[in-house]
Amino acid sequence: MVKHANTPGYRGLIVRKVAATLGSTILRTLEEDVFHEWDSANRRSVLDRVHFFGGSQNEPASYEFDNGSRIVVGGMDQPSKVLGSEYDEIYANEVVALSEDDIQPLKTRLSHGLLPQHCFLADCNPTYERHWVLRRALAGQMRHIKTTLRDNPAFYTPDGQPTERGLAYLQSIKGLSGSVYQRLVLGEWVGME
Questions:
Q1: Separation in Å, CA 39 to CA 11, 99, 165
Q2: Which of 31, 57, 74, 104 has the smallest number of CB atoms closer than 10 Å to its CB?
Q3: Beta carbons of 132 and 144 less than 8 angstroms apart
Q4: Whole-Å CA distances, 46 to 32, 49, 63, 69, 140
Q5: Across the strands, what pairs with 89?
Q6: Which class for 92: exposed (0-12), middle (13-18), buried (19 or more C-beta within 10 A)?
Q7: Residue pair 128/192 in contact by the 8 Å Cβ criterion
Q8: Which among 8, 14, 55, 56 is positioned nearest to 34, based on CA atoms?
Q9: How much is the pLDDT for 44?
Q10: Cα angle value 1/20/73 (rounded, 5°)
Q11: For 75-101, what is the mean pLDDT?
């Protein structure tokens, strides 16, 4: 998403079920881990090219780039804030909190037309094995990419060694067992609702 924001006029959306949860979750990660990365092509940090607009009665909250690109942020608890525009890409963070009824109107907003192909991305921690997200993936209605804790670059190096942060995290989750361990560490969809 941030890569495409280099294209003037790009419009993206980051959405969660509840808008108020964005700041302490995915937006914190975006600002601390993504925007701080050095953009070697432009020889400056992404932070030098973007500012946060907190929103108004007429405009949703968004990250505005110096080239006119914008990444809107919002929640499906306030659908009029996010559904009133067109986007090139939509990223649904923690999609298991959303319902299928939330996803359908979001997909209709993929109509901005700047990119050759629109994209709807989602991520989540696995939950129970009969969740609608997994059912859709198994039915071929969405692509499922299984990951585990070892795939998180904050916790493991490319050669599989835990990072300093990873070692601390592994220590903190040492007592996990059962379906919680299977879901959050092994990336498995297990258990009942």
A1: 20, 36, 24
A2: 57
A3: no
A4: 11, 5, 11, 13, 36
A5: 12, 119
A6: buried
A7: yes
A8: 14
A9: 60
A10: 25
A11: 94
| Residue type present at position 53 | F
Tokens of 145: 């990419």
Is the Cα dihedral 176, 183, 154, 49 positive or negative? negative
DSSP letters spanning 80-137: HHHHTS--SEEEETTGGGS-HHHHHHHHTT----SSSS-EEEE------TT-HHHHHH
Question: Do you know the residue count of the chain?
Answer: 193
Q: Which long-range contacts (CB under 8 A, 24 or more apart) does 47-52 make?
A: 50/5
Structure tokens at 10: 């790009």
Whether pLDDT at 40 is above 70: no
Q: Which amino acid is at 93?
A: N
